[in-house]
Predict the structure of alpha,alpha-trehalose-phosphate synthase (UDP-forming).
Amino acid sequence: MGSEPISEKKVREPFSRAMKDEPISNEQRLKELWHILDLLEIEYKKTSDLHTLISSVSESLTLVWKRRDPKSELALKGLLLILEYCLSHVFDGHSVFEVFVTSLGFNTVIFWKHCAGYIFDSDLGRGTKFRDALLFSLTLYDVNTGKNRLRELYAAVPGIRKSLLGVNAKQFGERYHHLQKRLAKYGSQSSLCSVSSESDAEEGMKTFHVRSGNHSESDGEEDSKKPRSGLATPHFQQRVINVSNAPPVSLKREKTGDWEIKQGSGGLVACVDPVMSKDHENLWLANLGMNINDKKNKRPGSVASESFPSTNTLGLPLIKQTIAEVFFHVLADDDMDAPKNEKQKKAREEMSLLGVLNNYNRGNYKLNPVVVQEDDYNVYYGGISNGLLWPALHNLPEYIVSEYNDEKILRAHWCAYVRVNYQFAIDAVRNSRPQDFIWIHDYHLMLVGMIMQSLDQHLEVGFFLHIPFQPPGEFFSKYSTVGFAVLRGLLRFTKVGFQTHRDRTKYIELVQHYFGTAKIVYDNKMDIYSGESRRLKKGNPEMQTDKTNFQNCQSLNFSVTNEGWTCSLGVFPVSIKNDDFLKFVDLPETIKLKNDIRKRVMGEHPAPDGRFFFSVERFDYTKGIMEKLQAYQRYFERHPDRIGKDVLYQIAVTNRRSVDTYRVYQDECIDLADRINQTFMSSENPSWKPLIFQTDGMQRSELVAAYLAMDIGVVTPKKDGMNLVAKEMLVCNPTAGLVLSTGAGSEIQFTTAGLYTDKEKNYHRISNVFDADSYCDAFYEAALESEAVRAEHGKRLHEFIMANDIERWSSAFLDPSWTHEVIRPTQIETLDDFFSLMMKTRNVRRQIVGRVLKGIPIRSHFAISLRNAKESLEQICKPGTHTAEFKSSPDSDEVAHFEIDNELQEFERDLSFIEYVQSDDADNVEQFVDVSGKYEFGTGFQKKVEKKIQM
Ligand SMILES: O=P(O)(O)OC[C@H]1O[C@H](O[C@H]2O[C@H](CO)[C@@H](O)[C@H](O)[C@H]2O)[C@H](O)[C@@H](O)[C@@H]1O
Ligand SMILES: O=c1ccn([C@@H]2O[C@H](COP(=O)(O)OP(=O)(O)O)[C@@H](O)[C@H]2O)c(=O)[nH]1
């Protein structure tokens, strides 16, 4: 073609279509591409399938564009038209986007530079949301491939990440918050609560700065009240940002239109709520079940059909989408004008929820809702989370919903799962400060760490899995898109906690198997792994042994490094806050309720040796409710002497009915329950009913009364997380018996602690819930056990649980020293050991300097590292001296001596520097500035060693 200008007359300008325009048909797009390919004389097959065409020509177009000749311009247009198509079809066009990005090869940064203008013009001028679509598409690409292409977009388009996160608004918010706190401390009369606009707030800040300046010249008592600033301002305390799908509250709309807010149920909430309640500054992000229903805006093939929650906000959570597609913020405006029409009235009514939330937030930690598209949420919750991940991770593949046999459906649902994780990640980053600890919970949010890292790498993000990790092989063959992303996703958290050693071991095995290059390090210096086999001995100062075992869980440290990321893996059996249950036990109303429940269950005239069995759980197939009912049926067949005496009170709280497998299971259980009652109703004792089956849950106060009323608790899951109810039962009622299956996490923990051995069986263990005969024999044994023996066993379990309160779980997980980033106390034997320790400390020092210079607060584990390093050095000094002794090489007997006075002093100085920057002290920084030039930060020793080696 030489250098003739190419005719582009018929080529449409990319990204020139307004959101309200009719979507472009695939046929039209095909023609546009054919035309460009013809003009560029690129060979192609005239297929009518757009995806096939794009996949086959993307690379050729890239090659022409890269040549930087007269044809390049047109080739770029072709690429932009393809990108426009992909971004208009984020879900159904993702496979083609993957091919497209891959074909760009090493040219992505420059390509994103070229297309940023088109995208921004289109978004601003035509109301499209291509920026958000591109950010999400690249996130999905990274999740699916394990690559890091989103970073290339950040590099190419400065500010895009910040605009997504609303960083400026966030910084403003933080400054404002900080100022409020400082003024509150200072005791100022002028409240900033009335600040209503940005300019007002800035005015407030100015006032503050003037005061601050004046004060620096005064002294005396007044001085202690002064607002101060550390070096690393804005300096705030570390908060816990908790992120989970389930909120700690359940919200219900009353007939009156008022919102009722109640404590949520479920084990996750029960164990995390106490941790959060410790500090009102903590923040919990969760989905409240109110999402964006955007159906009316849907038009296939239009950008709006996959509209993204608006990101142009103050970084505050969004709760309600109004007619004009404007989002209201959680900060409700009470002074709004009267509603203009019905729609506005309805929207207002729903807004009253904000008042409820605000009230909740006032006397509590903060609860902020994460709002997503309703359709996405349904698929994420009822589909991937509870239709695939839940059964797969419990190793119950028979409950994986059958529609996932269709790869297309699986991929489409997976996109929704990723998008909800993406929204949680964005909200978590927006709401976090660099010194916070972000704690993500459970299988719904396994990708949040990975996505958060790509948005802000300064954050420390931990993950706890509340359920088992026992996926079957087919999780990685049949559902590979999901399987590998989940395996990889977990490795992108800073630390990950499992309920049991069994689950962590399984995870490590899978990582080893599938990611051959992953480096797994077991910190054997801190090895208390064998603590697992320690046993509690009868009559021992009981909990001592196990306390050690549990406390040391944090040190059972595995770290895995994969694709440049390192993650610590620990084991933390979850528990309950004992006092939250015990506080109900002795209340007169509880005692009354307990008697009422017992009477209701056992009847007015119970048999003297009749037993009250009690089970309470979510109506879930993992809980083994069907198997329990089958065993109970068998119980009366095998042991007819118990007919007319014993009663099983089963509470199975209906949930997840949107998932087919749950609906079917729940209906089958209810049928069987009815059959049992019909079969065994006794004509001799017509008031007796063998089974009371209830599908409504109980509030905690009533639940405690039921625990007190029962004789024997029955907790027999097939496979489950921890089953906190088992612990709750025995904490509240130490005289109760317990039938517990090996599928329960608590059973694994009890066995580990030696509470079930050949010699001492403190509960009735069910090893196989499918074996109805042995199962019902355990029921029988429990029913015949004397009250004294039952109480003796109950007491042992009670004491164990009391000694392992939830406090221990959370403080072990949150302990800053539990991370691979911490320098552990090291035994220095050779020069190499010595040198490697000093290199590690140099890295820590670099991070400290980097953070202070950037104004980012430093992490508490830096000081732990330096202290450990210093103590390790002191260990090798001759007593009373600063002369270190160690072998010059592993094979040599020669002992080298080094004066390490400077190094030790330097550690002292660094540690006081850390203390200083973490304090509110703004004065006396000179003490840390070395103007003599004699000393280089953290390198003194290295120089000395080099010199010595040269000699
Ligand atoms: O939110 P739902 O779908 O209604 O489910 C409720 C919760 O169920 C699961 O709880 C698990 O966590 C407990 C505490 O660690 C553990 O003891 C139990 O065995 C697990 O099943 C689920 O993991 C939570 O995410 C749900 O919120
Ligand atoms: O009617 C009910 C049933 C359960 N729970 C609480 O829900 C939690 C269930 O936790 P578990 O670990 O046993 O199972 P999960 O539901 O989390 O799988 C426990 O704290 C129970 O006290 C409740 O408050 N009311």
Summary: The mean pLDDT is 81. The chain has four domains: 26-158, 240-493, 578-803, 831-950. The two ends are 70 Å apart (CA to CA).
